[in-house]
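On clarity, I found the account of how folds are encoded harder to follow than it need be. Since the whole study asks how a given chain folds, the encoding of that fold should be made plain. The format is easy to grasp once an entry is in front of the reader. For illustration, here is how one protein appears when written out as sequence plus structure tokens.
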Amino acid sequence: MNENITPYQSPTASKKEQVASMFNNISGTYDFLNHFMSLGIDIIWRKKAIRELKSIQPRIMLDVATGTGDFAFEAIKILQPEKIIGVDISEGMLDVARKKIQERDLQHIFSVQMGDSEGLHFNDDHFDAITVAFGVRNYQNLEKGLADMYRVLKPGGKMVILEFSKPRAFPVKQGYNFYFKHITPMLGKLFSKDHRAYEYLPESVAAFPDGDAFLSLMQKVGFKHTKDRRLTFGISAIYTGIK
């Protein structure tokens, strides 16, 4: 698994604490760098992932590792739910999300709060759908995080996870590896005050158990009808499962 891949290799802070600190450090430039480094493709990925929920038309949703809220905002546009709650361990990212919620006058639909993916403070069988975008690879205990999301999902509810993947085909694999290992850290150093965050990014993706390994983990905690849909030559993937 990827518990040992941490942003700062601190011997005294847990992965969870380091991830929270990292996102606090980069919250101000996070949205810009996301769109810039992906050439805007991340916006298309989010739309495709959210459309996986159109068939069930969820009313009450949970967005885990919500960050600055972009995945939830996309869900509001496409699905028009009654309520979305976003949780994240980074107060800095949540501050950005709150500003965006206020600017868009969406307080009646979307609210955010501090929350740990491995210990969600919600009742069992509570949400119609759960979403996570580019967050599960940062979990300290991936299986525990998946199990807790399963717990708070209603029977018949659906989970949709969007996460970076590892391309396997030549020459995309080689080009992707070069960009991630060399260009991404360089851009991070140029635009962000925490360049280590963008060195951690390719390390965390490389360590993440993508594809069949991740589907197996979803199945282990109880999810059924699990699927893995690759996007943009396998650079990212949408994982879905039903409780």
Observations:
- The longest helix spans residues 172-191.
- The chain has one domain: 15-242.
- The two ends are 23 Å apart (CA to CA).
